[in-house]
Amino acid sequence: MANYQPLIINKLYAPNTNMGTLRAAVHERVLNEMLGSVNQGGWKVLVLDDLTTRVLSSTLKVSDIMDCNVSVIEDLFKLREPMPIPAMYFIQPTPASVTRLLEDFSGSEPPPYASVHIFFSSKVPPDALARIKACSPLLKCLRTLKEGNLEFLTVDSHTIVTEHPLAAVKLMGGQGEGGPHDPRGELESISTRLCTLMSTLHEFPAIRYRLGKLPEPGDPPGAEARRLLADSLARLLDSKLSKMQHDGQLPPKDTCDLLILDRSYDPVAPIIHEWTYEAMVYDLLEVDDNVYRYQPDASRGEEKEAVLGENDSLWVELRHMFIAEVYTSLAARFNEFQNKNRAARQLGGGVGFKDKAGEMSTSNIRVLIQALPQYRDVLAKLSLHIQMSSDLKQVTSHRQLTEVGELEQDLVLGEKNSKDLINFLAEHHDSLERMDKMRLFMCYCATHPGKLDETRQQQWMTLAKLSNADLAAVCNLAYMGVQVVKPAEKSGFFSSIKDRKEKEFLRKRKEDGNDYSLFRFEPLLKSIVSNMSAGSLPLSEYPYLRPPAPSDLPANMRPASTRPTGLNWAKRGTGGEGGSVPTGRRLIVFIIGGAVRSEMRVVHELSQMLGRDVLLGSTSLETPESFMDTLYKLTV
Predict the structure, then answer these.
(1) What is the CB-side half-sphere exposure of residue 566 using CA atoms within 13 A?
(2) Is the dihedral of CA 228, 234, 240, 246 positive or negative?
(3) Can you name the residues that pair with 261 across neighbouring β-strands?
(4) Angle between the 434-447 and 454-464 helix axes, to the nearest 10 degrees?
(5) 102-123: pLDDT as tens digits
(6) At 144, which helix (H) or strand (E)?
């Protein structure tokens, strides 16, 4: 035991360096603070479990890891060959992962690695630490034992998820403590992973949360727990962060703002068709784990695949554009390429890149790639997005989504009512997909509360050919704070109150001056964060856990008044990704129950508009289909 150092958990903390992006902070944590610290002048093995594999895959390329002298990346739960070089374990401190770690050093055989460096993804429980201390073969070759504090997945430069895809079911489904979906363990896990986010960003937040509406007669079970859901997570998180702060792992004062919401704050955003490029791709095309598979030439039967992400600069430029602008941009790009390249112009023969029907065609681009290999990368990226946009156009036409989308937006803006909805379905119900009909109904219910009585339920089921399970899923919007079913009739004064309340649920048109009938809806997140940044978000609905002292805020973040002024004084950026440098402190929004692509778009826009690094976090990232699956799993 002469070479054994006392077993001390070393926490990774450094002063706030105000890193420009979320990905930069994660790269710093992994490549420098973890992999870079295991530097013994030679190669090393990296051992990962299931979650940490997904964590690293979400933000790093294999080449990034290999550049840190990693010779091989191993799976903790698979058999591995012993290697006479150091090994770095980056694993969760769960019983399963700790048990598998100890099994590597429990036999009579020599240790599988020359030395061992262990980085846990989050706080190590005392029992796990005790088990490690009791493993003498491991202690003999143990050189590092640290809490790496990295247990979230990076979706893009402004979005993370904590990998809790069943959070809405477990926390919003009305199951009490001790039931099949006991919420305590889920909240514990979510708060732990949020702690690792704050550690990675070197931030200590001033926490605000949304206080839900008071329970009403007819609410499904668990209404009070749902009302206090964001409150519960805020308090649990604050308790853990305060301990980390006391231990010197986090800054001594508030350095950022954190707003905690649950999915009921905006039940429309996950349902309504969003008509920007990225949202449409993930809603309407087959994308599996960010991989899009397609056939550029159906006659040849070959299948290609492309990873959608921020390594593709064209994807970054197009992803938040309205789909009509995407079509125009792609056409202009290719025409510009032809105009500037004589060989491409001659090969095009005046046809351009459109087929006989006038649609954008990848076959002509494939001819150019073969003839002009020096432009392969540029043309291949262009071909990919022409293919995806073409597929979107076909799906949109086949499912009559332009008509569906216009009606959705008319309904949520209050410009059409239930009669228009019924007339539309009477005319088109045989040609519409079941899910699109349900999304229309949900858009109506979410913005016209208390309209669904038994007669209308039967009318909807018959007209749209919905099953009892389909209608139950629509009614399960009640778990998202929507009063779906018609309450008992009231008259007089209370009736006028009810009319005013109904108008509160209607949405306001986007204020960006666009004339697109399919691009009028805006997620509530934009106005909430804008008001929060301006100091006009109501404290009665969004209280602080501990209000920060004005002196703790940077000068440019101290609101002159807590009342709305009607003036948008926030600093605007120059537009585009990275078009402006954030000047205010970070603002992080976390949504329990799943975020959606339209909200991802909004945080990018807000970062530019407010001059702040606005980040979006959630328990999961939902598509309309996965959100609908959640509604089916809830039980009224």
Answers:
(1) 0
(2) negative
(3) 591
(4) 150
(5) 999 987 678 999 999 999 999 9
(6) strand 142-147
Q: Which residue has the higher pLDDT, 621 or 570?
A: 621
Residues 550-561, mean pLDDT to the nearest whole number:
53
**How far is it, in rounded angstroms, from Cα 490 to Cα 187?**
39
Q: Give the pairing type, strands 142-147 and 10-11.
A: parallel
For 391, residues 6+ apart whose C-beta sits below 8 A from its C-beta are: 285, 294
Q: How many CB atoms lie within 10 A of CB 499?
A: 9
For 392-420, the pLDDT digits (tens) are 999 999 999 999 999 999 999 999 999 99
Tokens coding 3: 């070479």
What is the rounded CA–CA span in Å between residue 541 and residue 504? 15
HSE-CB at 266 with a 13 A cutoff on CA atoms is 21
In this structure, how many other beta carbons lie within 10 angstroms of the beta carbon of residue 278?
A: 21
C-alpha separations of 247 from 125, 203, 240, 241, 584 in Å: 16, 14, 11, 10, 27
Report whether 85 contacts 42 (CB < 8 A): yes
344 against 304, higher pLDDT: 304
- Assign 116 to helix, strand or coil: strand
**H or E stretch including 395?**
helix 376-398
| Spatial CA neighbour of 298 closest among 233, 206, 361 | 361
Half-sphere exposure of 422 (CA within 13 A, CB side): 10
Yes or no: say if 592 and 263 are a contact pair by the CB < 8 Å rule.
Answer: yes
* 127 Cβ contact list (under 8 Å, min separation 6): none
- 3-class DSSP assignment, residue 210: coil
Enumerate residues 6+ apart whose C-beta is below 8 A from 302.
Answer: 295, 296
- Nearest by Cα to 163 from 139, 194, 134, 136: 194
Contacts of 190 (CB under 8 A, 6+ apart): 162, 164, 167, 233, 592, 619
CA atoms within 13 A of residue 109's CA, in its CB half-sphere:
11
* 247 DSSP 8-state letter: T
* Average pLDDT estimate for 208-222: 90
Give the contacts of 606 (CB within 8 A, at least 6 positions apart).
Answer: 526, 529, 530, 533, 587, 612, 614
- Cα dihedral angle (283, 287, 291, 294), rounded to 10 degrees? -110
- Of the candidates 299, 332, 21, the residue with the CA atom closest to the CA atom of residue 155: 21
**What count of other Cβ atoms lies within 10 Å of the Cβ of residue 397?**
10
List phi, psi (to 5°) of 104: -65, -20
In angstroms, what CA-CA distances link 322 with 94, 274, 279, 519?
Answer: 44, 9, 10, 7
Range with the poorest average pLDDT among 33-37, 151-155, 477-481, 570-574: 570-574
Query: Which amino acid is present at 15?
Result: P
**pLDDT of residue 69 exceeding 50:** yes
Please, are residues 409 and 447 in contact by the beta-carbon 8 Å criterion?
Answer: no
Distance (Å, rounded) from C-alpha 316 to C-alpha 388? 14
d(CA 30, CA 37): 10
Q: Between 497 and 44, whose confidence is greater? A: 44
CA distance 183 to 177: 6
pLDDT at 192: 98
Residue 475 CA to residue 632 CA, distance in Å, equals 10
Pairs from 97-101 (Cβ < 8 Å, separation ≥ 24): 97/49, 98/128, 98/131, 98/132, 100/49, 100/76, 101/76, 101/132, 101/138
> Amino acid identity, residue 456?
R
